[in-house]
Amino acid sequence: MNLTKSTILRINLTDKTHTEESIDPAAFKKYLGGRGMASKILYDEVDPTIDPLSPGNKLIFANGLLSGTSAPTGGRYMVVTKSPLTGTIACSNSGGFFGAVLRRAGYLMAIVEGKSEKPVYLSIYDNNIEFHDASHLWGLTTDKATDMIQDEFGEKRARVACIGPAGENLSPLACVINDKSRAAGRSGVGAVMGAKNLKAIVVKGSNVVKLDDQDIFNETIKAKTALINKHPVTGEALPALGTKVLDNIINQGGLYPTRNFQFCTFDATDEVSGEALISKGYFRSNKACFACPIGCGRYTELPNGRSGEGPEYESSWAFGADCGVSDLIAISEANFLCNEYGLDTISAGTTIAAAMELYEKGYIQKEELGNGPELRFGSSEAIVFYTKQMALREGIGDKLADGSYRLAARYGHPELSMSVKKQELPAYDPRVVQGHGLNYATSNRGGCHVRGYMISPEVLGVPEKLDPQELAGKPDWVIIFQNLTAAIDSIGMCLFTSFALGLEDYTDLVNAATGFGLQPEEVLKVGDRIWNLERLFNLKAGITPDMDTLPDRFFKEPIPDGPHKGAVSQMRKLLPEYYAKRGWQNDGTIPDSKLNDLGMRHDSAVTQKH
Length: 610
Ligand code: SF4
Prior knowledge:
With 610 residues, this protein is of the alpha+beta class. It has 25 helices and 18 strands. A seven-stranded mixed sheet has the order 5-4-3-6-1-2-18, with helices on both faces. A hairpin with a 4-residue loop joins strand 1 and strand 2 (17-23). It is globular. The two termini are 19 Å apart. Mean pLDDT is 96; it is low at 606-610. The structure holds iron/sulfur cluster. Iron/sulfur cluster (SF4) is lined by residues 73, 95, 288-289, 292, 294-297, 494, 496.
């Protein structure tokens, strides 16, 4: 198989039709696949000013270049659309098996257009595409809907990506859940699916993705897998403790956001850490996505018999330290509810944290909570109760369902939302990690840690240790991390491989699979191209450069505790240099000369219709 001869499936939900199209093979060299290729298609085909929940928005399920191959972690897919949470372009990445099986069915991506009049689900079995009534599935949680669809499809091993009640209720915090527990989590992509009345996509594929020169590819895979297996992070820490290896590290580093980012250390970290998950007896086994040698996933079982995947570090932090909660059972339950109801754990947990601060400061009144528990920091009852209320839009949950920014703005205090471009920040305080703060501020999808994970050098010392408070050189680091991440997403590999692999390794894999003969700088340039393309979409959507900032708390309130007591964010000092190094104007816009440099002026990704 020649990977660059890939097919796109285009689905029209309005009139229940589908077509197949080819991608221009030359476009692969420019965008690789996944995030890059899908962003290009969205940019070309969707008006950036469109209402994200209107039928004109498109929802693209996109595999990376190597998704579905045996490349280590080559099972990543992305959901690309315009976000109802941020108004920016959204690319939400997930693992599991759904993407790889979509590739085995013969499709690099599926572009979903229009809107069905009634709830439907879509089945893809190789090139046999069918639309099915989903009225009986509407309202079901993702686990139940998945079971029923697999039964109806007659294939227990078919892979399902679906939404839960949160997506149906158009919460901009809604995610797409595949394989019952893997989430295309951020930016509200599940609400776009809900707005289209699309409950699920079920896929089965019978074609193994075998390359024209599989022997050379196999040798390269073997060498890169060996690097992954021997690296202390990917070969030891992640398999042993999952992402929750971070709880103690981040807390000891004094950047573990606590009580809606009011503090930076949490005195009960020992109760909620990855180590605690094991010592309390809740951890059952590792879980791995398709073709993954790392297996960072946690399968857990609580004393009450509830079981499932997670919680991951970010999820556990959002419901834990950020809400001041030290009860690992309640945290795990809130995480399970998010998987079942289809909510992004980071945004859901941190929205409850913002609500707790609003309540404790007297802006939310007790009467508004009905029979619900008080929204007080430390309440394990509250995190479970309001997660469910949020997904169902019941009681005050109707307001929480719109995310922390809209919630806090409603009460006249938007400054209490710890978000960038209305998307909630993850589990690292930007007053400590100055490069990571710049990354948050400039992220093309709002508050996010996986657009350029500067925690790696600024805290973990990979590939080298940087002083987190130092400013010199940070814009260069952020740009390289952002560009490299965009390229890795487009290749279709898990970002965690970047602890062990460098730019040359990814280039080797791309070249072995395609014969492109790319130089490492060219792969990095692909990432630069994608970053600029996303920025262009956002600028046209009305996301202005003055939104490249952080919540006021990080500039005005020095850290009150921990080893970085007294620190504030210096992000504003770094931004002009960041713009200049990106080749942008002083005002944050992109000059034509930059687009010319990147060869972006007159290209198009999709060429022929079959
Ligand atoms: S490292 Fe973890 S998230 Fe990444 S592919 Fe492997 S199991 Fe999935």
